[in-house]
Amino acid sequence: MAVQLVIRDGNPYWYLSPDIWVVPGADPNASPGAPIAGSPAYLWAHVANSGNTDAIGVRVEFYWANPALQVTHSNATLVGGAFADVLAGGAQDVLCLVPWMTVIVNGGHECLVAVAIHPNDPLPSPVPDAFDPPSYRQVAQKNLSVLVATTQAATLTLTVSGLHRREKAVVVSTEIGGEVDAQTLARLGLPKLRLARGASIEVGLDQFQRCVGERDPIGKPKLELHVPRAGAAAVHVVVRAKNLAADEYQLVHVVERQGDKVLGGLALIVVSERKERQT
């Protein structure tokens, strides 16, 4: 069995890995939380070794990307890395030694990827442009942000990237529902939030950015996109709260599919403006 490194995918949403988290601020050993745009933060990953051979000198690389669905090497930025020894049957929490300077773009809503690299458990060579976490147990992705919604609607711009060597045709769609585990809520500084019992938000997609008021059309539930090779297309996600209480959240998924295959996705924990004032 040798070395078998694992950074877990999320379940049932693989792009919500529980093994990647952020510590905002200058102290990497402080409490986890949501990144703050314009401020430093530290990235952590939990790496396990399910094999029967110790993995000495595992390099863990950390990447960030502007809000994207399918994250690729072409649209991601390397933050830095660290080395760790992960014993057979054991696990290690690994800190990226380089602080992540969270940019202002999109208010700090970014996507994170962690990759565990060891010569005795190699990834394919050459490395494909798409990270494709479901295909590789050494790779995981955390596409989760907190979005404050009001009756006037909030908008987040996402990137749908073309692959480095070929164009692609995809469908981007929205889904409302699902629950966030208690550990993830706590790591975002939202430990007391509860899942809204009913439909408390509206969500839509648009290829053009626009102001959406309380009574304006919210957008489409799905979009068909053709993305050129090495190019990109923008998708604007519009979220409007209807009756979301201050201690509630609703989960929104924006998913990119090609046929039946999920190429990528991003989840938004939608909270009310009143909740933001309390935190």
Strand count, sense and barrel status of the largest sheet are: 6 strands, mixed
In the CATH scheme, the class of the largest domain would be: Mainly Beta
- The CATH topology annotation of the largest domain reads as Immunoglobulin-like
Shape from CA axes? globular
Number of helices: 2
Radius of gyration: 19 Å
Average pLDDT score: 88
The number of distinct β-strands equals: 18
CATH superfamily of the largest domain: Immunoglobulins
Order of helices and strands: EEEEEEEEEEEEHEEEEEEH
| Structural classification | mainly beta
> How many distinct domains?
2
Helix content, binned percent = under 10%
The CATH architecture of the largest domain can be named as: Sandwich
- What is the percentage of strand-forming residues? over 45%
- From the N-terminal CA to the C-terminal CA, the straight-line distance is 47 Å
Low-confidence stretches: 275-279
Task: Describe the protein's architecture and organization.
Strand 17 and strand 18 (261-272) form a beta hairpin. Mean pLDDT is 88; it is low at 275-279. This protein folds into 2 domains: 5-142, Immunoglobulin-like (Sandwich); 147-275, ntegrin, alpha v. Chain A, domain 3 (Immunoglobulin-like, Sandwich), CATH 2.60.40. The chain is mainly beta and 279 residues long. The strands form 4 sheets. Strands 10, 12, 13, 15, 17 and 18 form a 6-stranded mixed β-sheet that branches. The termini are far apart. It has helices at 182-187, 273-278; strands spanning 5-6, 20-24, 40-49, 55-65, 77-86, 91-95, 100-101, 111-117, 139-142, 144-149, 154-161, 168-176, 194-195, 201-206, 222-227, 232-241, 248-258, 261-272.
